[in-house]
Design a protein that fits this description.
Helix content is 41%, strand content 18%. The protein is α/β, with parallel strands linked by helices and 265 residues long. The chain has one domain: Rossmann fold (3-Layer(aba) Sandwich), CATH 3.40.50. Helix 1 packs across helix 10 and helix 8 runs parallel beside helix 9. It is globular and about 45 Å long.
């Protein structure tokens, strides 16, 4: 049921889109010290990816994703921060790419509560090896849809939940708006960031409409890099709840800065 492993796609264009949004959010929290936060990665993967591994080398999506981003000479502060963050992991040759879980651990402050969910046995093992000793971090081999609502009532009032399922289970498109509504009811002050693939099947459109109907003040961000009638993923989607409206501008500025390096449309 849970066969997806992100190592095959690590560092691709969708990762760039998602991680720039996550970096902007976490940086904002760091600039505003105070109450403890909940930092939750609902589909954590292994957290740190070796781009020289056989899995990553099989498709090499990073060649058209993070590689050209690192070569960009843009003066955009968010993009420069992202480049420095990635470069700090690689002393010489670029071989390691951070997953979302790594971003969370690097921005965790004393007193923050960090929750990682993952179901794939190999990914859970790697996640625990990488981050098992981080104070205040809980790694759950559990289904985020059933487990998180029980945990969120005991969590700090503010923070961010990242949801980026593989959508191997097609009913997730229908499940997510109801699930997010439940989370928001229990945790109204928190930020929720949802990533999803833009695929020719267009299943995401009904999900977007449902989310917009429930949360009229939320916003979307789409990055496109291929024709929607072609095979496979042609773009990356983000839906954001309780994020400042300025974040939409930030993501558009990043999109414009990376239009040529990532061949965005």
């Amino acid at each position: 049921m849970y066969s997806y492993q992100h190592i095959y796609h690590a560092g691709n264009k969708a990762d760039v889109h998602k991680h720039l949004a996550l970096l902007a959010t976490l940086s904002r929290f760091r600039r505003r010290p105070g109450e403890s936060l909940l930092l939750c990665d609902g589909f954590a993967g292994r957290g740190l990816y070796n781009l020289t591994s056989p899995e990553a080398q099989k498709i090499q999506e990073f060649e058209e994703g993070i590689f050209p981003v690192l070569k960009s000479t843009s003066s955009l502060p968010l993009l420069q921060q992202y480049q420095k963050f990635i470069s700090s992991l690689n002393s010489s040759a670029f071989t390691r790419y951070p997953g979302s879980a790594f971003f969370f651990t690097q921005f965790k402050r004393r007193g923050d509560r960090v929750l990682f969910y993952e179901n794939h046995p190999q990914e859970v093992k790697a996640l625990r090896q990488a981050f098992g000793r981080v104070p205040g971090l809980c790694i759950e081999k559990a289904d985020v849809y059933t487990h998180l609502p029980n945990q969120i009532t005991k969590a700090p009032r503010r923070g961010i939940i990242l949801l980026d399922p593989s959508f191997e289970i097609k009913t997730e498109y229908e499940m997510l708006p109801t699930f997010i509504k439940k989370l928001h009811t229990q945790w109204p002050g928190g930020m929720i960031l949802l990533w999803y693939p833009l695929l020719p099947s267009q299943h995401f459109q009904k999900m977007e409409k449902a989310l917009k109907d429930i949360f009229p003040k939320s916003f979307f961000s789409h990055w496109l890099w291929a024709d929607e009638a072609g095979p496979g993923m042609y773009g990356s989607g983000l839906w954001c709840l309780n994020l400042p409206s300025s974040f939409a501008t930030l993501l558009e500025e990043a999109k414009e800065a990376l239009k040529d390096p990532l061949a965005l449309r």
